[in-house]
Design a protein that fits this description.
The protein contains nine helices and ten strands. It has about 260 residues and is of the alpha/beta class. The protein folds into two domains: about 180 residues, Rossmann fold, CATH 3.40.50.300; about 70 residues, no CATH class. Helix 4 crosses helix 5.
Amino acid sequence: MSHLLSVSDLHVGFGKDPVANEVVHGIGFTLDPGETLAIVGESGSGKSVTALSVNRLVDFGGGKITGGRIDFTLGSGAVIDLAAAPEKELAAIRGREIGMIFQEPMTSLNPVHAIGEQIAESFRLHHGLTGKQAMRAAIDALERVRIPDAARRLKYHPHQLSGGMLQRVMIATALSCNPRLLIADEPTTALDVTVQAQILALLSELKRESEMGLVFITHDIGLVAGIADKVMVMQNGKAVEQGRPMRCSMIRSIPIRSIF
């Protein structure tokens, strides 16, 4: 049986000569449905580049995959190598099969439009819904991520919501297509500790409900110790440690080197 995601010998570089300017050196990991993989590392370790390479968003930031495979099992059961897939095929997979949550929601949401319109757009694009159907689906999406009084908040603009609420909106948008894989790139960094815990609990609960795979990027291993099934620690573009989290109840926000 195929893994949901299987990354093998991944190499990624930047610039005119990506081979010479390599920043990810031979990364490999697997993820099954319903599992959470935490990719942990210091700033500049290559963890976000690795995550952005999975859905090939790294291509839009000047990066290029120079070697390796990224095998992903589609809902149809077919396995596709995302590292070699053409952009037209990738465009159909992003959002529908692979969802993405970014670190700062204010840079991902349009400040001019109400959040309801922005969530409804996803349902229009990927589900073919129109008018009231799309807006009803947007309300359901907000309720799914536990936003109270969803119908009223649908009319809010991003600046009218707190950081925690905005991140829930981003999660609702990412989950609107019921993706098989969700990539969360440090989604709680700008939030306080209490809201961080709420967002993590929400992601864990939603993952159990849908059996999707979750890749969680963070610099804080203590943050995800309670929800991660696997941990991969990166340093200087390499995986220096992989395995299942240990002593989860004891781990706190401490430097990576002192854990392993």
